[in-house]
Amino acid sequence: MAKFIRVALPVPLWRSYDYQLADDLSVTTGCRVIVPFGSRELVGFVLQADCTPDYDVSKIKPIKRVLESSCIWPESMWKLLLWASGYYHHPLGDVLAHAAPVALRKGEAADYQSVRRYIRTAQGEQIDLQQLKRAPQQQRLLAALSRDSLTPAQLRQQEYSAAALKALQDKGWVETEVVKPDPEPWQFNAGDEALRLNPQQAVAVAALHQYLQQTQSAGKVWLLEGVTGSGKTEVYLQAMQQVLERGQQVLVMVPEIGLTPQTVARFEQRFKVPIVALHSGLTDSERLQGWLQARDGQAAIIIGTRSAIFTPCKSLGMIILDEEHDSSFKQQDGFRYNARDLAVKRAYDEKLPLVLGTATPSLESLANVEAGRYQHLQLTDRAGEAQHAKHKIIDLKQQRMKHGLSEELLARMNQHLEKGNQVLLFLNRRGFASALICHECGWVSDCHRCQKPFTVHQQKNLLQCHHCGAQQRIPRQCGDCGSTQLITQGVGTEQLETVLQQELPDYPVLRIDRDSTRKKGQLAAHLTAAASGEYPILIGTQMLAKGHHFPDVTLVALLDVDGALYSSDFRASERLGQLYTQVAGRAGRASKPGTVVLQTHHPEHPLIQELVNNGYHDFARSALAERQQALLPPYASMALIRAEAMVEQDALLLLQAIGQHLQGVSEVVVIGPMPAPLARRAGRFRFQLLLHAEQRKFLHAWLQRQLPQLEKLPEARKARWSLDIDPQDF
Ligand code: ADP
Ligand code: ZN
Ligand code: ZN
User: Fold this and answer.
1) Which of 397, 407, 487, 571 is the most buried (most CB within 10 A)?
2) Ligand with an atom nearest the CA of residue 440
3) Distance CA 444, CA 480 (A)
4) Ligand 1 neighbour 115 (Cβ under 6 A)
5) Which intervals hold domain Helicase ATP-binding (predicted)?
């Protein structure tokens, strides 16, 4: 009797596939198999080790190969992935593929890399070293090998001669051996001494320790709300110590930009235990090694960004998620998950403590505190000597401007620079200028594929579309009237850098944005240079607002935030509040009092007044009350269906058809179709449909019923569409 198995494949379809299993093969749920798919071969995951196909079995193809005998994930992770596929309504095959390291997605063995080592042969072990008196290089090498084997890297490092190695090999005294490293258990060892906690830190650490000492019966989440510089990291470290001491692992999640060598160094200094950092600079194979070390319990601390939430851990004892408000925890394409929300789910499933740390909590997390689901811990004082920053609004309405800088700001900068302090200017617009326009006729150089102005990059002499990446040389003449009177509009960081070099020639400027940090290692090098005080003036985009410490910065200025005050995105004010507070946190560390300056045309705007006068804490609470009144998340549930097509009608018709399908349930409101905020991108027309429900369960039950139908709509053949659960930016 033939046996059949059910497999999930990394294809964007809501179905699984059946294959035949040869008699001499066996599989279990969650192991990988290689199967034929059309003309290709794919790596899939077994969902059912024994199934009964409901169609003609003579058409079912046999699988090619079984890659392992058991599930690559522990059971708890497997369950989390199944749950995530259901919650995000995303095809399981794609979820599983996304969660696995790339090397495993490609079908490589889930195994440690073998290493080559040089050892003595049986004959070599008998040799009296005196025999090699006249070949000192060979003597030295053989002596070393009698103590321990050597890897090729060690051989080079310790400067043994390659010729001597060859001579010993030729004599048959030395050979190579290929071995897999032994999984080594680790032991807890403390490094640098812990700091003396201030009273607020002590309360936070005590709360976490108390939980750890209980026999754990349930997962628990803490929101650690601590102003910048209040010493949240010290709280993490002291809480982690108890977990590590009893041999359990800690998973530390940081935002994309936060995972720098400095971050890892802070953990390395405190704990002498194996640390695995899962960052974008790793090769596929290095990443797999890290993943295996976590899964098999050989890594004590695992630090990573968003996707690290899928790292299996043999004996996880705590999860820490730093900068929990940061939008980089949300995956914005493909499998659109939120790593923070999955961390909460994982903590409850695995009965773990989870610490969400931030100076500017997301409104979602605050609502969870208010509802009693999370426990709140607060650090309102800066650790050590540092003082809170002073705030100052510059009303741009009466000011003469020099390329985005008011004269008042320039004067203030001078005061700080003359005292030998650093100044940080924050402008969230990279490039030289946001548009190139004709001074005679008003023509704007647009990307015709996106119908948005090109950004001017003067150093590279290019116009670049920041939406689709299209680029071209900067024209000398107007595309309409032929005039050569072309001017730029909207100051970007590149222009600001040039202007400051002219205005304040004595003070070197360092610009940190995506353009200046494109090459590997450049960001880390720039951040080190910025912190070293070598550059009195720092210019940065949003990248610079996150968690980095610049001890000599005493003046921080936000040059242009007015766009966020009148945005159609209901999250824009929350984001501005977080940005302002985070940027302000860069100033006045290490006992030098700092000043934060905000340039705006709307000093009277209630949002700005609330932020400047009362701070993020109060601001967030009134923003939360507004959300509750308007029935917006977190007091309602949303999902977004996006569609795009080369022909405008195709995208629109698809969403109209979907909208019709989704009619008739009073608990869910369908809004749209309406043009997406970026209505055209790379030549495609884009529309969206917003689904809104006061209760999550109605929205999800309904999606689950309807989604299989949507795939079959005839309109779906002409347009691409995607679903985003709990969408963030739209
Ligand atoms: P946060 O992450 O909350 O912004 P950090 O953890 O980076 O703050 O701490 C800011 C600075 O204060 C660091 O230099 C840290 O070493 C120092 N610090 C933290 N806790 C203490 C303490 N209890 N006593 C003295 N210095 C501290
Ligand atoms: Zn013109
Ligand atoms: Zn474009």
Assistant:
1) 571
2) 2
3) 9
4) no
5) 213-379
